[in-house]
């Protein structure tokens, strides 16, 4: 008998076909993303779950007595209750590497858009505001040859470095909880303590996972340490930043601008002051969202799921859950 699996997000046809070959599948058909309550109702018989973004909480697992594997279609797994999974012997997997270049591309897009005021100027042209030549008031700042500081030098951090160093001749420094001598040598990177990195960088990019240690690691004190002309980019998770402090720093000119893909509350509320500031570029958590990369991620997640259900070691077990 094939193991029963619930597929909680839409997957491409070839991924569905692969899963159906190996598993007895049920799939979420709704247009909107599945809610936690809807997911809980569908897990009573499931041995495997393929999921994108939903919280895997102790409460959800209580309604899934037969669950053996949770396969996340994402690299981040901060929304998985790892203790609850561990205590039930549930295998958890994720999708590293396959999205690195796509997320790095988007990070550069946010850097360029914030520095060259792309969305602000786009809106100005669209609303008929381009009357004569453009005055200095609309000039941006250079990305090329600027100083970039990356907090969290992991897989995606390195992909950002390649673009910044070799495409834009940027001077790149990083802060990480442990030094990366290999990356320092390959890319000519400078390692700085966080306060020093904040004080020296024209662009600060946050690229750590969300953990108890990184929660709100950037707040009022860190924004004060940044240069007044600094541009802050967050593609990690919204909760790594104190959003109220970010809003204040942007409103009172403590920093120049921000480019954001992630927020404390997602979807972000239309009332959030960040959406009303000209010096903020906002995206809806789409770092990895190209058709090709999302399809590749779904296939990696499907293989992780099938391997785990059939007793083989999946390629990408969540590190904290490894035996
Ligand atoms: N916006 C998006 O769509 C999107 C897409 C992909 C990943 N992400 C986020 O980016 C994160 C990073 O992804 P990755 O694949 O590069 O992960 P990774 O594990 O390869 O790299 C993370 C790095 O952060 C460092 N780090 C961890 N805790 C730290 C701390 N307290 N202080 C300093 N450094 C610390 C780690 O040592 C590691 O080098 C993911 O966990 C996810 O939250 C967001
Ligand atoms: O962690 C990830 O892979 C992205 O944020 C998509 O959820």
TrEMBL record:
Catalytic function, reaction form: (R)-glycerate + NADP(+) = 3-hydroxypyruvate + NADPH + H(+); (R)-glycerate + NAD(+) = 3-hydroxypyruvate + NADH + H(+); glycolate + NADP(+) = glyoxylate + NADPH + H(+)
SUPFAM superfamilies linked to this entry: Formate/glycerate dehydrogenase catalytic domain-like, NAD(P)-binding Rossmann-fold domains
Enzyme Commission no: 1.1.1.79, 1.1.1.81
GO MF annotations in UniProt: glyoxylate reductase (NADPH) activity; hydroxypyruvate reductase [NAD(P)H] activity; NAD binding
One Gene Ontology term, aspect cellular component: cytosol
Enzyme class label: oxidoreductase
UniProt domain D-isomer specific 2-hydroxyacid dehydrogenase NAD-binding: residue ranges: 108-287
Keywords: Oxidoreductase
Origin superkingdom: Bacteria
Domain D-isomer specific 2-hydroxyacid dehydrogenase catalytic: 5-318
Family from the record: Belongs to the D-isomer specific 2-hydroxyacid dehydrogenase family. GhrB subfamily.
Name this polypeptide is given: Glyoxylate/hydroxypyruvate reductase B
Gene name, Swiss-Prot/TrEMBL: yvcT
């Amino acid at each position: 008998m094939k193991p029963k699996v619930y597929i909680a997000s839409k997957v491409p046809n070839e991924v569905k076909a692969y899963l159906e070959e190996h598993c007895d599948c049920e799939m979420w058909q709704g247009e909107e993303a599945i809610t936690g309550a809807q997911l809980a109702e569908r897990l009573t018989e499931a041995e495997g779950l393929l999921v994108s973004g939903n919280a895997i909480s102790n409460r959800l697992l209580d309604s899934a007595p037969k669950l053996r594997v949770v396969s996340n279609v994402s690299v981040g797994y901060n929304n998985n209750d790892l203790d609850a999974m561990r205590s039930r012997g549930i295998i958890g997997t994720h999708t590293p590497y396959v999205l690195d270049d796509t997320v790095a591309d988007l990070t550069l897009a946010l850097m360029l858009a914030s520095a060259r005021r792309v969305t602000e100027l786009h809106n100005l042209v669209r609303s008929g505001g381009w009357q004569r030549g453009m005055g200095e008031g609309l000039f941006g700042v250079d990305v090329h040859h600027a100083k970039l500081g990356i907090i969290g030098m992991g897989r995606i951090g390195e992909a950002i470095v390649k673009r910044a160093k070799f495409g834009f001749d940027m001077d790149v420094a990083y802060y990480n909880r442990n030094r990366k001598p290999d990356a320092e040598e390959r890319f000519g990177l400078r390692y700085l303590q966080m306060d020093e990195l904040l004080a020296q960088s024209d662009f600060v990019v946050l690229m750590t996972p969300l953990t108890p240690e990184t929660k709100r690691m950037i707040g009022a004190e860190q924004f004060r340490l940044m240069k007044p002309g600094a541009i802050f980019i967050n593609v990690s998770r919204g909760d790594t930043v104190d959003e109220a402090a970010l809003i204040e720093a942007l409103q009172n000119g403590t920093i120049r601008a921000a480019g954001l893909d992630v927020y404390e509350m997602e979807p972000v509320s239309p009332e959030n002051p960040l959406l009303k500031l000209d010096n903020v570029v906002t995206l809806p958590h789409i770092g990895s969202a190209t058709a090709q990369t999302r399809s590749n991620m779904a296939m990696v997640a499907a293989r992780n799921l099938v391997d785990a259900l059939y007793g083989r070691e999946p390629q990408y077990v969540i590190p904290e859950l490894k035996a």
